[in-house]
Design brief:
The chain is mainly α. The protein has 7 helices and 2 strands; from the N terminus they run αααααββαα. It is globular.
Length: 116
């Protein structure tokens, strides 16, 4: 799937998939929300508002209030690609979230996921 297709995906649909992945592994929607808030700087009410209106995935990240500076500490492989090696900045932000949700689904502690 090309980057532009990913950027044009409906955020609420992607969010639903992230929550399902976490819940299948015994984690919660609240934990997914905490990760998203940590990464993007959105508040919970802002996040909920984004889920109620049509927002494309690319704009969700482009318009993020404050991307966490510690996101650069996220390392590892998502979809066969090292997140730290992704050259397209917007795609790297998206893959950071994918990596954090993968860590959540694998049972990692929230303190470690949030790089505390």
């Amino acid at each position: 799937m090309g980057n532009e297709k990913v950027y044009q995906m409906d955020f609420s649909k992607v969010y639903g998939l992230l929550v399902k992945k976490a819940e299948r592994k015994g984690r919660t929607r609240q934990e997914v929300d905490e990760i998203i808030r940590w990464l993007t700087g959105y508040s919970q009410p802002e996040l909920e508002k984004m889920l109620e209106q049509p927002v494309v995935y690319g704009d969700f990240f482009r318009d993020a209030p404050e991307l966490n500076e510690n996101r650069k500490l996220i390392k590892g492989v998502v979809c066969g690609v090292r997140v730290e090696d992704i050259e397209e900045p917007l795609m790297q932000e998206i893959r950071y979230l994918d990596k954090l949700i993968d860590e959540l689904a694998r049972g990692k502690d929230m303190d470690k996921i949030l790089r505390k």
